[in-house]
Structure formats: C-alpha cells, structure tokens
Write a structure and sequence with these properties.
Number of domains: 1
CATH superfamily: NAD(P)-binding Rossmann-like Domain
Number of strands: 2
CATH topology: Rossmann fold
Radius of gyration: 15 Å
Strand content: 5-15%
Order of helices and strands: HEHHHE
CATH class: Alpha Beta
Distance between the termini: 17 Å
Largest sheet: 2 strands, parallel
Length: 90
C-alpha cells in the first residue's frame, strides 16, 4: 500500500512537469536467485495453478514493461501500479 500511495502522490506532484510516475509489481520471475531456491519446482507449480498464463515470467517480461513505460506510447499513463504477473490470482 505504501508504494501505491507514493506512486500516486509523486504522479500528482510531478505531472505538471510532464513527468510520469508508475510502479511495477512483478509476479514470480525466473531469475537465477529464484531458480536456485531448493523448493523452486514446488513454488513454481503453486504459482502456475493460480495463473491464466501458464508460464513463469522471464526478466525480459519486466524489462519490456519498463521499456514501454519510458516510451512516448505510455505518455498518458501515470500514477499506476502495473502488474507483470501472468494474471496471477491469490
């Protein structure tokens, strides 16, 4: 809740300077750290059970979201929390 409030407050304060502020909330992303977890396969299966897109996110999924948010195509998006989670529920 703190990040959401901060994002919305900064978007309000900085919008007049044409600065957009957004936050990204990644789901499970297949980084080296998470893949090295001893219970990775169990964690992965639990996550996939609650996801309409039946795959674990890749770092490029988050990177592509960032690239979009810093592009001109996202110029009317500010104060938002963007979930990059494969639609995970629960």
């Amino acid at each position: 809740a703190g990040i959401i409030g901060l994002t919305k407050s900064l978007a309000w304060e900085l919008g007049r300077y044409n600065i957009n502020v957004n936050a990204i909330a990644p789901g499970i992303i297949a980084t080296e750290l998470i893949k090295s977890h001893p219970k990775f396969e169990m964690i992965k299966e639990r996550q996939l059970a609650n996801m309409p897109i039946k795959r674990i996110g890749q770092p490029i999924d988050v990177a592509n979201t960032i690239l979009f948010l810093v592009s001109d195509e996202s110029s009317f998006i500010t104060g938002e929390l963007i979930h990059v989670s494969g639609g995970r529920f629960g």
